[in-house]
Specification:
This protein is of the alpha/beta class. The protein has a single domain, classed as Rossmann fold (3-Layer(aba) Sandwich), CATH 3.40.50. It has helices at 29-38, 53-59, 83-93, 113-132, 168-182, 207-216, 236-248, 266-277, 303-308, 317-326; strands at residues 2-3, 20-24, 43-48, 75-77, 97-100, 139-143, 189-194, 197-198, 221-224, 230-232, 234-235, 254-258, 263-265, 282-285, 297-298. Strand 2 (20-24), helix 1 and strand 3 (43-48) form a beta-alpha-beta unit. InterPro entries: NAD(P)-bd_dom, NAD(P)-bd_dom_sf.
Length: 330
């Protein structure tokens, strides 16, 4: 599987055809947003973890074409580390398209083995289950992460950059990519490498929701680690829009960055939030929040993405931050 070449002709974008789309991890941050934004554009089915059942029943009521207020019958409990559960779900749904939004994305988990169990081995479960099933899958999208670039990241990291991950999260994602490449002759797989993105509903262990929460609660100070390294903090709506367009394009068997090329430091983000809220907060550095092998700048080259997704919706960082304050999510 090769990185997408921006010099190739633009892949054709099709119209939504209400083919069956299975969102593995519909209860995830990105899964919830994608379903909410595009439930009327696709015939969506989803999987969720059993411990999310109550939240699913309270949040997602009717199928896209139904006015029933019953819990969505198109959502199935499924643990992707259990291959039999995956196979059972595939048999029930018979999807035309799959996006895997399930995974461990917080890069500071205490037990590193969880990354490999969920981000690597579980994806092998998905791949082998699809191959062993009778479904005729048109496209499978597997989100990886820009963290795979590691120490080779630069101000405009392109898909051709050699991955050199420096933590367990990045290694688990790169291993997933390698496993997917083994079966890419049998499946149409798009691997995405999203750079940082955020929005309401994201776990407040992540930096932007954490900061927003402190401002909403009128905290006087906040403990942080490195506030000068720069990252992209793209809008969840932009990311979901890209996934929609990738589903509808005839782009196939490619590795693709999801990025804008716009990077900010946490120091800059806090200043922006301060102006929006007309409030200030004292930053206290805590060694506990400093990461080993911190990448000073992680930003991507969106050239390939822009060649596939014409006129992508790019939200300004101020729009994204205001979304938090206009949302009922805490």
């Amino acid at each position: 599987m090769k990185a997408f070449n921006s010099q190739t002709p633009n892949p054709k974008i099709q119209n939504p055809d209400f083919s069956k789309l299975l969102l593995i991890g519909v209860d995830s941050f990105t899964g919830k947003w994608f379903f909410d934004l595009y439930k009327d554009d696709f015939d969506i089915y989803g999987t969720y973890l059993e411990n999310s059942k109550k939240e699913i029943e309270n949040s997602f009521y009717s199928s896209p074409k139904s006015k029933s207020q019953n819990p969505n019958p198109r959502f199935y409990p499924c643990d992707i580390t259990n291959k039999e559960q995956i196979k059972s779900t595939l048999e029930k749904v018979g999807p035309d398209y799959i996006i895997n939004f399930a995974g461990i994305s917080y890069a500071a988990e205490e037990n590193p083995l969880i990354y490999y169990k969920v981000n690597t081995i579980a994806v092998e479960n998905i791949l082998s289950s699809v191959i062993e099933s009778d479904i005729k899958l048109k496209k499978l999208i597997l989100p990886s992460s820009a963290v795979v670039y590691g120490k080779n990241a630069n101000p405009k990291t392109s898909e051709d950059e050699c991955p050199e991950p420096i933590n367990h999260y990045g290694i688990s994602k790169l291993a997933m990519e390698k496993i997917a490449s083994i079966v890419s002759d049998n499946l149409n797989i798009i691997i995405t490498r999203p750079f940082n993105y955020t929005g309401p509903g994201q776990d407040d262990r992540f930096i932007i929701p954490k900061i927003i929460k402190h401002f909403k609660e009128n905290k006087k100070e906040i403990e942080l680690g490195d506030i000068d390294s720069k990252r992209e903090f793209n809008d969840i709506r932009f990311v979901c829009y890209v996934y929609k367009k990738l589903l509808l394009s005839d782009c196939s068997n490619a590795i693709l960055n999801i990025c804008t090329g716009k990077a900010y430091s946490i120091r800059e983000i806090i200043k922006i939030i301060g102006k929006i809220t007309n409030n200030n907060i004292l930053i206290k550095k805590n060694k506990r929040f400093f990461r080993k092998n911190e990448i000073p700048l992680l930003s991507g080259d969106p050239s390939c993405l822009n060649s596939i997704v014409d006129n992508p919706i790019n939200y300004d960082i101020i729009d994204t931050i205001k979304l938090f304050f206009n949302s009922e999510e805490d």
